[in-house]
Structures
1.
Amino acid sequence: MVEEFKSEIWIEKYRPKSFDDVKGQEHIVEKLRGFVDKKNMPHLLFAGPAGVGKTTLAVVTAKTLFKENWRSNFMELNASDERGIDVIRNKVKDFARTRAIGDLPFKIIYLDESDALTRDAQQALRRIMENYTRTCRFILACNYSSMIIDPIQSRCALFRFRPLSKENIFEIIEKIAKAESIVVTDDAKEALYKVSQGDCRKLENIMQACNAISNKIGENLVYSISSTARPEEIKKIISLAMNNRFIEARDLLIDTMLQYGLSGIDIVKQIQSEAVNMDGIEDKERLEVIRYCGEVEFRLVEGSDPVIQLEALLAKIATINQNK
């Protein structure tokens, strides 16, 4: 464990160094290996949720292609920070128009969170991608490919990333636990998988935060550090509401929010998640709960009072059995 708490240190420490180390994206790794073997590649568009390996695969591809010259031939920009047209016209264009160092004829520009680029910036980018294809290849990463204009999408090979599976998450947990001499209980592994939701970066941040407190990571510690309520508590809230015990459900809901420091949207998302997999309720009732969660989430986003909206959600759930 490092003396100073810095999540970036852990993330860099356990970031895959080669294609063989990458977990959960084998369908993409196989195609990238083909590009590297032929020492040529088209423009690429990586789309998928956060923390699943988009940046890692871009860096691994550059390191494998350019070897010791990879830093000179690889430029990484975060489009959410530098999203204007001036950055595309100046910084990106200047790098794209110069020749690569080494045997390969092209360099790589990696634009992270490229769906944050303005429409004007994307229009400028597509012209640069056209004009400087000989000297530069682009790898664009985004959460939502629909936010990228069609002319850019048509110029790229699209790869869709998926969240890491439970097996992949458990492999990463065991690797980190062994390297850092941490004891992780089986319940804690399940909790880490549920809390991280397939996001490796979030997993590593939570594990490091837990390790700063104790070398033994248990289920309670994981939920406490991640500010996430235990699934049993959420299920109990839903069950109380459905059995017309509204006051008890409301009191438990407020206590749970205060204990874990949850916002209104956090608790609504957990209620929706647990309702999907909860036993003991009929499918029609499950659909009603999910529909009510959607209505309340929309109102919260629009600025409604969280306590009133959550009480309204419990009241709606309480009426399900009455209507039946």
Note: The two ends are 56 Å apart (CA to CA).
2.
Amino acid sequence: MDAGLIDAAVRRALDEDLGAAGDITTAATVPAAARARAVIAARKAGVIAGLPVAARVFALVDPGIGTMPCKADGDVLQPGDVAMEIEGPAAGILTAERVALNFLGHLSGIATATAEIVRAVAHTRAQICCTRKTTPGLRVLEKYAVRCGGAVNHRMGLYDQVLIKDNHIAAAGGVAAAIIAAKKAAPGVKIEVEVDTLDQLDEALAVGIDQVLLDNMDPAQLREAVARVAGRAVTEASGSITVASAPAIAESGVDLLSVGWITHSAPCLDLGLDFRG
């Protein structure tokens, strides 16, 4: 991850938490000279992600705080496993605690949810990919967490790939018209088109396409779609894919399964920070 992007996200979160007055509870109760040792440990099993982000929170609150990761992002934690050791001014550790845990719990929750659905399709050649359904301002971090969970990223934003969806098709006057216009406007850029029917797929293949998003098709339709594509384009299935439904979809032969909930609805992984003597 880019250090500048991490710092920008962390500074926004700290500004939100500290406001103009700062940590008034810690300032009132903790002697300035007090020092402490602490650990961040898992309270539930999961995949850790975001350790560099958490470390940066402590460093920006007080450069005198030292952090030592005990695991690497992408590692599986069991309850009680220590992910990070922390030592330094007690006041700084307490001030940074919640923001560090917010980032670490959120990103680890995404990695954990991602790993679960990745395991569900591990017997196939298909890969899980994420979407643009991310928390505003946190996309880079969340897509990093997806990779920690074993999946791959789709486009990062509107700027790095053409993805023609149903409303683009309606506005352009049809599947072929939209693809032809995109090829003319963005030569050399990968173009993907969303199709809802096999007829739309045939129309896309007739003019040539790099990737096709097969939306809300059942496994039988997906198998037929993969047969018609016959390796001429990357195939991606989408549409409310769950851990339970993913295996049958992956077994259709598609290359990718597009899953939005791993970023927009993944529960936080339960992690805690505790002082140690």
Note: The chain has two domains: 3-118+267-276, 152-258.
3.
Amino acid sequence: MAKKTRREFVQQTMLGAAALLAYPPARVLGANDRVRIGMIGVGGRGQELLKQVMELPKAQVVAIADVYTRRHDEAKQIANGIQTVNDHRRLLDIKDIDAVIVASPLHIHAQHFLDTLAAGKDLYAEKTMTWSIPEAEQCLQAAKISDRIIQIGLQHESSGALADARKWIKDGLLGKVTQVESWMSRNTPHGKGQWVRPVPSDCTATNVDWNAFLNGRPNCPFDANKFINWRLFWEFSGGNVTENMVHQIAWIMSALDLPLPSAAYMSGGVFSEKDGREVPDTIAVTLDFPNDMVVTWQSTFSNSRYGLGERLLGSDGTIEHLAGATDMVSGKSGETTHYFPEKTNRRDGVAITGNSSDQDHMSNWIECVRTRKTPHAPVDIGYRSAVAAHMANLAYRRQQRITLEAAQSAQVQL
């Protein structure tokens, strides 16, 4: 398999920086103008985002780009009258577009991220921000020299639970936090693995720009299963760590204002369904952070009993955020955020229930495009959460503990 070194990525970053400086700034919006949107990638997740932005009165979808012609027709059913193109560069050349939503597969995020900034457009980039650590560094540097508004699709950053947790931490209710527990669990019927989607009959080499999808990966014959089910393969995906853990790790890092992890461990494997996937479906991650902190995340695709959640364990109290835990009697699930005092150190402390409302993540981005304020999930948390996720995957694939320094200097397997 071909490899790219950090030097090659740095060289690409310098070229990208030059391209950013060569483009004029985007249009300044007036008070009554709608933000004109283009989308790159309108598969399953992209169509969800398309529906979200279509509901916003201050936004107008102008065009979409996708390498699969089927997606053009599906997008037109959602947004009648939009332009459709195969090549994302043609979309970025449309002067009437102010901002772009990138919802392409993970391994193309960085390319679309950099090209969008170089075209002078504001950006909503789906998580995880990039497929690798060098790409994350490249995108971070490009963002630093750009004046574009960038929101990463880490929706938990707009949650009321995070707002409550931040307030309780700021008020000193937790004391010294040395450990955080987090988890995410799902289940599927026997014989049906998570994420496995049927391959449409029209998913053929004629209807898919396979070379554009490969995005520099070694050339190989068209593979409809890999194109549709790219989440199952390391070449295009980071598995459940970059699909789900990244949301919770970003939430934890934001709540506690954590830097990059100092080391990562990860165990697990393909245990739930032996369906040809490469990425593990059963996972136990441990992340070490500076200043005496350990964060764990566990996940299974064989049991959904406990949904997802986080517990921030402090010397003076605990923050517990639960989402999707099923009540044994009613069968219903819900989301709650609580603070519980540690009577050892806060004898008179009382339990608190969070009541902050969630904010709409997409609406926040559109508003920031208009006001030029910083959105809830800027590039910095996109970068830190991406590095944490990639460190975990590197530790798993190497079957060893990996430090931040080793992860940052690792060659990128393509």
Note: The CA atoms of residues 166 and 255 lie 5 Å apart.
4.
Amino acid sequence: MILSMTGFGKSTTMMAGKKLTAEVKSLNSKQLDLSARLPQHYREIELDLRAKVAQAVTRGKVELTITCEADSAQNATSVNVAAMQHYKQQLEQAAQALGIDPPADWYATLLRLPDVLVAADSASTLVTDDELNALHATLEQALQHLNDFRQQEGNRLASFFEEKIAAIQQLLDQVPAYEAARVEKIRARIIDGLNKLEGVDYDNNRLEQELIYYIEKLDITEEKIRLQNHLTYFLDTLHGPCGQGKKLGFIAQEMGREINTMGSKANQAELQKVVVRMKDHLEQIKEQVFNVM
């Protein structure tokens, strides 16, 4: 069964006053394109997290987001008094040197300067073993949710492909009925054209030979057989192992080749209409096959 490359997974874990959240979002892409947004103190383990995601996802444009939040008590912002004193001293010296008045509202001025307001959890950069294990477990759960989402989307895509392949098959089954009438119309049109030429005599045997040669060039038997094989192969691949998106795309291209050749050889309005409807269903398949992993 196929998997979709589009999906989303999220998981949250509470441990030791911290809230760990892992989010994984994926879109279609020809290969794995992974980007990660992590807290600064998780940068040392970024490669391990990326490897875990790559093993589970294999292909697609993937965005990994990890957040670590302290609870409300630990997340309170503290004032860096030492930094305020340092800034105030420098501002006073600058005002004296420039001959200008110091700020009228010191608090408003100083609180806007960098590193004056410090989140309590910003100083906690040490990742313990318990936190690391919780982080990996959270990421694994998010990846599981992502793959569950991809499986659901894959099932929807599989139903869509089956519906479109059945529609093309139904149209292909209609071709023989138009084909027999097409040969007779071509023959009648050529003979009628010859009969309208005054003073022209022709050999009937030679005419039959030329008609056979001309009609053979318009024969679409091979195209029908190959298209039938491609339809069967597409369904077999669809219900095979995962990771067949590229192969399904290649099969769809081959189906398009046979349908196009049938259209160029059709030489009949009714048969060309059938070919156009085949192309319509095939284009819808091609649009969606890019979402298959």
Note: The chain has three domains: 7-74+127-151, 81-115, 153-289.
